[in-house]
Design brief:
Layout (H helix, E strand, L loop, with lengths): L37 E2 L4 E2 L19 H18 L2 H11 L5 E3 L8 E2 L3 E8 L4 E7 L9 H20 L7 E5 L12 E5 L4 E2 L7 H19 L8 E4 L5 E4 L18 H17 L8 H15 L16 E4 L8 E3 L5 E4 L6 E4 H4 L9 H6 L6 H12 L7 H4 L2 H7 L9 H14 L7 H11 L4 H9 L1
Helix pairs in contact: 4-9, 5-6
């Protein structure tokens, strides 16, 4: 007899009081664990209590290559069945004045699957290639249709805005929302320009190649600094086609509900930390060590209520704000064989943020090993980009040398990486030290803050449940 409940495939949250998924076990009212509870073998979600229980007998070993490939092909097969090719081709053709084009969904050599999207090439008779960027609707960890539409609409708005400020990015040819009755394609989709070349790989680049790319990145950041916003939020498209800054659509991990918009930085950073506190308290994140994780995000909430930027620039907490890529690890930058930047891709979850976040040290120059090992200070790549921004007289170049408080703050104790408790503690110590404090004994710090925050009812509940 199946132990899966009817609500095993619950929708993703549309506001902070909802959960991503329910536990699939019949009779369990707990939230599924976002980071630990997904099973690729049975395509189900489980709470921390049941993911390793006898009620979930699947092997916990990672999928082997054959199993992974079979799962990928099954997902693609289901997605292909949803797509009305003739309708999608008609939309693409109409966007280019009726020019003939073709789309082959089963061309496995050209179809590309990423973490959130599948890309199908659209070929026009003049040689132009577009991409049909389709959310992974048939993956068991897909977002709800409503949230998928909002994320896609925000990315479309961002691409339109970027085209207006002449920052190189894929041009938007058209889009359709899953919830739009006028969309006959069967899925949500974007039609975007296919940028030539390959993602920038910082690890394999020579120093000269890296300097060349970072110099061009400095030009792009300078362009963004010339187009401020008056609030913190993500772009969207209104019914009349105009662009508007709305709620923060999410973060790079894809685990946050929509927040804001905000008029000052403290509101934004506190809301970010409070949303993680809610997810931890509900068992959706860091379920293997909820008390420790709660203490960490409680500390981050206190930190976020202060200015994360330099003391002398606290006025920037209230703006202006600037657009920032949400997942700028470096592979979002497309380069040709001569390391000329051809454009910046993957603008999901982009948002306007304070200047010291937008132009301070980011993932694009981060040393992941230092972040994970809690080693503080800027690295050579951070300083290289800072030097290049200064050469270009970027108005906020000084933030690139200020330190990486914001980068570490938003990285948290390993958000999106499913660390062990020991690993999270090491990462967290780096955050605290970067902010000018020291954690000598972790056990002592933990005990002292359990006492200091003993009036927190949620913390007491988590402590009592252990």
């Amino acid at each position: 007899m199946s132990v899966m409940s009817a609500n095993a495939f619950g929708s993703n949250p549309s506001h902070p009081d909802q959960r991503f998924w329910d536990c699939s076990i019949v009779g369990c009212s707990r939230s599924a664990a976002i980071d630990l509870g997904g099973c690729e073998r049975c395509s189900s979600h489980f709470c921390v209590r049941h993911v390793d229980s006898t009620l979930h007998p699947c092997s916990k070993d990672p999928l082997d290559d054959d199993e992974w490939s079979a799962g990928r092909e099954d997902e693609l097969r289901k997605l292909r069945q949803m797509i009305k090719v003739d309708q999608l081709v008609a939309v693409a053709s109409a966007a280019r004045g009726g020019m003939e084009c073709s789309l082959k969904l089963d061309d496995t050599e050209q179809v590309r699957m990423g973490g959130m999207h599948v890309h199908f090439p659209v070929h026009f008779i003049d040689g132009t290639v577009w991409l049909a960027r389709v959310p992974r609707h048939t993956n068991f960890q897909s977002f709800s249709d409503q949230l998928t539409d909002e994320i896609l609409l925000s990315e479309c708005a961002t691409l339109k805005w970027l085209e207006g400020v002449k920052l190189p990015a894929p041009k938007l040819g058209g889009y359709g929302l899953k919830g739009d009755p006028g969309n006959k394609v069967g899925v949500a989709f974007m039609l975007i320009e296919c940028l030539p070349c390959n993602p920038f790989d910082r690890a394999s680049a020579t120093e000269d190649q890296k300097r060349k790319v970072f110099s061009q990145l400095g030009d792009l950041l300078t362009t963004l600094s010339q187009h401020p916003f008056d609030r913190i939020g993500s772009l969207t498209i209104d019914g009349d086609g105009s662009l508007r800054l709305g709620t923060v659509i999410g973060d790079r991990t894809g685990t946050l509900s929509r927040l804001g918009p905000f008029k000052d930085a403290a509101q934004y950073y506190v809301a970010w930390a409070e949303e993680y506190l809610r997810l931890v308290a509900d068992g959706q994140l860091f379920g293997a060590f909820p008390v420790t994780a709660y203490l960490m995000f409680r500390y981050l909430r206190e930190l976020g209520s202060q200015s994360l930027g330099p003391v002398e620039t606290t006025q920037l907490d209230e703006g202006p704000f600037y657009l920032k890529h949400a997942d700028d690890k470096g592979d979002h930058i497309m380069v040709d064989d001569e390391f000329n930047v051809t454009g910046v891709i993957d603008w999901s979850f982009a948002k306007a943020v304070p200047a010291y976040e937008a132009f301070g040290p980011s993932l694009v120059t981060a040393d992941l090993g230092c972040l994970l090992d809690g080693k503080v200070g800027l690295n050579p790549d951070d300083l290289l980009l800072a030097e290049l921004l200064e050469e270009k007289a970027h108005p906020y170049a000084h933030f690139a040398r200020y330190g990486d408080r914001v980068r570490r703050f938003l990285f948290g104790p390993g958000t999106g990486m499913s660390p062990t408790e020991e690993e999270a503690v090491v990462i967290f110590k780096g955050i605290v030290e970067t902010c000018g404090e020291q954690i000598g004994s972790w056990d002592e710090w933990r005990h002292n803050h359990l006492v200091e925050w003993s009036g927190d009812a949620t913390l007491r509940r988590l402590t009592d449940s252990k």
